[in-house]
Specification:
The chain is of the alpha+beta class and about 475 residues long. It has 14 helices and 18 strands. The strands form five sheets. A six-stranded mixed sheet has the order 1-2-6-3-7-17, sandwiched between helices. It has a four-stranded antiparallel sheet with strand order 11-13-9-14. A hairpin with a 6-residue loop joins strand 1 and strand 2 (about 65-70). The chain starts with a helix and ends with a helix.
């Protein structure tokens, strides 16, 4: 595979242009108004897999959005890599904070990406990272360098909890059989510091509704006499943390796996500048659970955050009203041994108990998933380590991610496979935020590195 760098450079503009075209389609799975665009994106992914050289590509119906499946079987006696990715994206709101339209991709230079970055919704999460695998396959097939079998499973519901994926896995275990699952939906520490994600936090996502009077009321005639749902909701949310920013839900920490002193010390070896971190976010100070560092707070510790809150009048001018209802969306990131369904039940009970008389509370669970940790002493991890070392010239650092990919634990349960997370994004890529982007260097470096994983994985499997 010595010519992979040359191939990537010769096809640089085509690789970028193809990704740009994919990013133009607003495949927002959370909004039914974009259903046709979701289906259009699935068709586009199918076409690209066919062009890359898959022998079989099909769009598989599910109770929700379709899954694109493709495969290239070299020899049934060789190992099989299953690539997972998703073609759906987050809503782009708030639109007024984008410096360019979210579905009109543009390439801009940044301090971190002087060679340019593609700004668009889905650029990094996950169309850009998913598409690296398609182009890596193209290279391996065209250059007779595919050393094993490969399958693709690209879904369209990851951003809404992969609601149909379990259904699909249960019915297609044989079709999806593999020796390792490869995912690029994570990041690395820095461009010059490669890393492999070895842990993901779980997730419990809920929506809460607080109802007071049976209609909106005049705040002058009724203010001070009836419970204001917005005021009450604000107090209830504030009560979910104590003065040390510990979560107050009874039983919340009972099953939290405490990281060892050895693991915490290894985490501390990763390059990190607190001042650069604050500068990048334009904040004066960090904030979080007492007794833990910033990198520990956002990876090995559970959290609870309000993701949205609304109610009452939010239009132009003033309207003196006490709203009948107030709402919030709340996510809890979980660590190993915390069961997301158990945590959801604990939250519901506690939140309902926080409500004063005069209001009614409804807690609506949305979706969730378990945390996941990948051992670093496995053949699969060694193959990824060797691939990064060959591509970057240095060994990658294992790191736990603060994000969640709930389906990873589902894969191990249903397919009995280990997952390797080879992400090429950066924390600064603004995924889920306005001005999401993906560095061109990172995109091309991913295409260059992925085939090396196939090479080392197949070699190690043969030696097994």
């Amino acid at each position: 595979m010595s010519d992979i760098k040359k191939y990537v450079e010769e096809n640089r503009e085509r690789f970028i242009n193809e990704l740009v075209e994919l990013l133009k389609i607003p495949s927002i799975s959370a909004d039914p108004a974009y259903k046709n665009d979701v289906l259009k994106t699935a068709d586009a992914v199918m076409k690209r897999l066919q062009e890359a050289g898959c022998d079989t590509v099909e769009i598989c119906d599910t109770p929700g959005n379709p899954i694109v499946f493709g495969e290239k079987i070299v020899d049934k006696n060789l190992p099989t890599v299953l690539v997972y990715g998703h073609y759906d994206v987050q809503p782009p709101d708030p639109l007024d904070l984008w410096t360019s339209p979210p579905f009109n991709p543009v390439i801009k230079e940044t301090k971190i990406h002087p060679e340019g970055a593609i700004f668009a919704r889905g650029a990094c999460d996950d169309k850009g990272q998913m598409y690296m695998h398609v182009k890596a396959l193209e290279y391996m097939i065209k250059n007779d360098a595919l050393p094993c079998n490969v399958k693709f499973m690209i879904e369209g519901e990851e951003e809404i909890g992969s609601v149909s994926l379990g259904w699909f896995l249960e019915r297609n275990r044989e079709k999806l059989s593999n020796d390792v699952i490869l995912i690029s939906d994570t990041g690395m520490i820095a461009k010059e510091v490669p890393s492999i994600t070895t842990g993901l936090r779980g997730l419990s996502y809920v929506e809460v509704e607080v109802t007071g009077p049976n209609r909106d009321l005049h705040s002058g005639l009724y203010g001070g006499a009836v419970a204001n749902p917005i005021n009450v909701l604000a107090k209830m949310i504030a009560a979910l943390h104590d003065e040390n920013n510990h979560i107050t839900i009874p039983g919340f920490y009972d099953k939290v796996e405490e990281a060892s002193d050895i693991e915490r010390s290894k985490m501390a070896e990763a390059p990190f500048s607190l001042e650069n971190y604050k500068e990048a976010l334009d904040i004066e100070a960090v904030y979080g659970e007492k007794g833990y560092s910033t990198n520990e707070r956002n990876s090995i510790r559970p959290t609870l955050d309000v993701n949205g809150i609304w109610g009452g009048y939010i239009g132009e001018g003033a309207k003196t009203v006490i709203a009948s209802k107030a709402y919030a969306k709340i996510s809890m990131r979980l660590v190993p041994d915390q069961d997301w369904q158990e945590i959801t039940a604990l939250f519901k009970k506690h939140f309902e108990n926080l409500a004063p008389k005069g209001v009614k509370v409804n807690v609506k669970p949305h979706h969730g998933g378990q945390a996941y940790v990948t051992p670093i002493d496995t053949l699969e991890y060694q193959a990824a380590n060797d691939a990064y070392e060959e591509s970057f010239g240095k060994a990658p650092i294992p790191q736990r991610s603060g994000g969640s990919i709930p389906i990873v634990s589902l894969f191990e349960k249903e397919l009995k496979s280990k997952t390797i997370l080879m992400g090429f994004g950066l924390d600064s890529d603004a995924i889920h935020s306005p001005n999401e982007h993906f560095g061109i260097w990172n995109y091309l470096k991913g295409i260059e590195t992925i085939p090396l994983f196939y090479k080392h994985f197949t070699k190690l499997k043969k030696q097994e």
